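Input sequence (731 aa), recorded before submission:
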Amino acid sequence: MVHPRRTNRLIFLVAFLLLALSGSAQRGGLNWSNDGNSFMTIDKGEIVKTTLPGSTRTTVVTKADLTPVGLPALNVRSFTYSNDQSQILLFVNSVRVWRLETRGDYWILNLATKKIQQIGRDKPASSLMFAKFSPDGTRVAYVSQQNVYVEDVATGQTTALTADGNRKLIYGTFDWVYEEEFGCRDGFQWSPDGKSIAYWQIDATKIRDYYMINNTDSAYSRIIPVEYPNIGETPSPARIAVANLETGKKTWLDIPGDPQQHYLPRMEWNSSTELYVQQLNRKQQESKLFVCNPATGAAKMIYTERDNAWVDMYSFAAPGGRSLRHFILWLNNQKEFLWMSEKDGWTHLYRVSKDGSKETLITRGDYDVIDFLAMDEKSNLVYFTASPANATQRYLFKTKLDGSGKAERVSPMNQQGTHEYSISPTGKFAKHTFSNASTATLDELIDLPKNKPLSISESIDAKLKPAPTGAVEFFTIKTAEGVTMDGWMMKPKGFDSSKKYPVVFQVYTEPAGQTVLDRFGTGRNRLYRGDMAEDGYIYMSIDGRGTPAPKGREWRKSIYRNIGRININDQAQAAKEILTWPFVDAERIAVWGWSGGGSATLNLLFQYPDIYKTGIAIAAVANQLTYDNIYQERYMGLPQENLEDIVKGSPVTYAKNLKGNLLYIHGTGDDNVHYNNAEMLLNELIKHNKQFQFMAYPNRSHGISEGEGTTVHLSTLFTNYLKTHCPPGGR
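Predicted structure, token format:
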């Protein structure tokens, strides 16, 4: 349930479909060369280089190159180059770890000799994580079974940096909650000189396990434990060590404070003698930045930030997509770093001196920087996405890196919708992707400074078509309480304004994501078997306060200690306005959602039973006391201090009010929103003799996607229930 701009969970479990990020140098599907004049992609099992501006394609790694002696060709999931681009590290046989496929096998291909060799040959199959070259390309470090290793490329000799790692004592990667809520997966970094490696240790030995039960794969049930700290539980202590590879010395960073009352979610090397670490207090209301001496462990605080709600986490794309996200980016010969903050009420970019004594606001104005994309120091430019005039859209902007300029839109004015860019390390070229609710995703290669397509015939403009009839309509609605919200609506085909139609609301409404976005896929319901518009439904969604729209801090953080109340009230008040529309049938109002949206569905059905007649809730948090500490404490506070807020925000509190039709769905193997939410809710409904329909999917996780026939079964169940209890068509 994390914020997509900060930690990349999308609303409808898009993370399940993402490419594995493990060791991948790819961003937006591209892997740029050092000079920024070409990029590499995987195409039909081979690695192909595209040279710009002519888009000349050359196969640089063939299937033959990827075929070890006596084995079939490797099916490459992702790859990274060594710094000198003479070797490629190949990630294969990937398997999913919670959300993403971050565990697998690694092979090295020498591009000159064509020698191909496996790294970590003595480790269990598909057990390696986050393998990465040393700066000089002579060694590779990786994690296997919660321990960190370094392997010499030439000799194959392996050195274990840690030896006592296990499921509860974790080195070089993270436990469930750090991964889910901070986006922490890759837990080690080479020093710039390649002489040291800094890595995390997460001590989850005192974290209680949640037990998932597999009842189907044998005659006896099997318990599957997941270390999972519920809201109110003490965090797992985290610390960071620096291993000197020449001397074998290990130094723990001496960061002040009780490790059971704070988090260490980010670190970044400057020089090989300075390591920067971010610390958040348990409530996540105070961020401290420490500069640490890797030789002595000494830590000095240089920068701090506070927020009465919570301090948001941000990250930066590395130049050319050469790495995973960074929490600070260095500039001015490592003397300054980029920083993002909303401390002035809007999310902005700052440049801060390395000692924290001086900062300069780069982006100025009453708008939010949605995401940093690139900086071009030579041209004194920084590129970022923003949308000052329309919170449902995304555009590329640029401004002066020294803070002296105003934001200037780069994205074409005639392309209204959502724009994404993968920018080369030099800022000369970029891959530009565009879509909106009525336009399928299109892309082009551009000369970025000139904002010109490299090929007119292959440009987005050349491929754009007029919006089809019956397209998604965007609207704003103002409630009686004076809150103005964005929404979208798909009307039935052959819409007749003299008739009344049923309305189906799609909801999420928590700080983890927006539903009202002008991009392709908006307005489509993947769970509905058929065409909702053809069948005669009005389908819509509304984003209320607390959703992470680029509308400023006050909009986003008004939900603090109010999840399950202020967001639910906003939805209901908007629905009341919509019920006054003459073509809306107030007796056929349905709502559905998944995860946080499932929670919202339950709360709407229970708290406003006179508005919402039918609800379908999937994988919902029925009781906020069951969800993890990082997410729930960030947005709701500590139950030891304000338990009443948490109880009042939980759907189970209001289950006795159910009047309408409820279909509740949950996977018994859900490691995210645990299955006990379902049974707690069922007990409360049973207690009050509330009739409902329930479907448990055995061993399915939060996405309810595993198992033969699951997707078809789920969508059939969803569709049949909706048609039965909220019949389609105008009347």
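Checked by second reader. The longest helix spans residues 710-725.
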